[in-house]
Amino acid sequence: MEQSRLREYESKCVQEEPPFCQAACPLHVDARAVCAETKRGRIDEALKTLLRALPLPRIMTRLCEEPCKAACKRKELGGSLEMLMIERHCVERGAPPKPPFLPSGGKKIAVVGSGLSSLVTAWDLSHKGHLVTVFHGAHIGAELARRLPEDLDVEIAVLKKLKVSFYPIESGQSFIALCERFDRIYVGLDDPSVPGIHKNNENHEGVFFSGGADSYIERASQGRRAALSIIRDIQGASLSA
Asked: How confident is the model at residue 169 (pLDDT cuts 50, 70, 90)?
């Protein structure tokens, strides 16, 4: 068979493609695998599968706008799967996995703001062993605290176990001083308590900005992409490749 013909056949094969729902999810949760484990009654395994992709699970299983539902093939047979309810069931019923092993020698990262994107960035970086300090307004995650106070408290407790520190933003705190104290800085644009810190510092080396999306799931995704960019920057890898 000619190579062109072979490539034509290969292009039609979807065996290695992710499910539609997983491709539509900004965090790429493997909903098919979660459903399979849940169907078998293996809730602990379903939770482990979910947590491979989902940060702050108690918050995200409340706030996610479920873009997977629009892509769900089950809707053609009467209705999309209620993945948010399934995921919430796993979070509430599954046994929490053991704390991850945190490698030593992590960098010092400052996260300015405590909106959803900032907390996701802190979550991902702390799981990689970096020492994260979150600088917040009068209240940690003020917007989230108004909507989900109990769930937020649980997630903050988990972050603290991962050695994430929390400090209020001091009046007149110098942004340049932060740059001198930390190896990298993330500024979350979804926290209104951060007083315009991004306006004059967007070109400062080692500073990353994100979190301005309208939806919660996109803010979480932006926080994750920021954490990945910070990790790549620390490793000296390209940020544009």
From this structure: confident
Query: Do residues 154 and 177 touch, judged by C-beta distance below 8 A?
Result: no
Q: Which residue has the tokens 């954490």?
A: 227
Q: The pTM is what?
A: 0.89
Please report where in the chains the tokens 């917007």 appear, as a residue.
143
Q: What is the second-level CATH architecture of the domain 108-235? A: 3-Layer(bba) Sandwich (3.50)
Query: b/e per residue, 199-236, with b = 16+ CB within 10 A?
Result: eebeeeeebbbbbebeebbbbbbbbbbbbbbbbebbee
- Least confident range of 92-106, 109-123, 135-149, 166-180: 166-180
Determine the Cα–Cα distance for residues 159 and 121; give it in Å rounded to an integer.
Answer: 11
- Other beta carbons within 10 Å of 151: 20
| pLDDT of amino acid 137 | 86
Q: In this predicted structure, which of 5-19, 118-132, 177-191 has the lowest mean pLDDT?
A: 5-19
Distance CA 238, CA 224 (A): 17
Give me the residue spans of the domains in the chain: 3-93, 108-235
Cβ atoms of 131 and 87 within 8 Å: the answer is: no
Task: Give yes or no for residue 87 having a pLDDT over 80.
Answer: yes
Q: What is the CATH code of the structural domain delimited by 3-93?
A: 1.10.1060.10
Rounded Cα–Cα distance for residues 132 and 109 (Å): 5
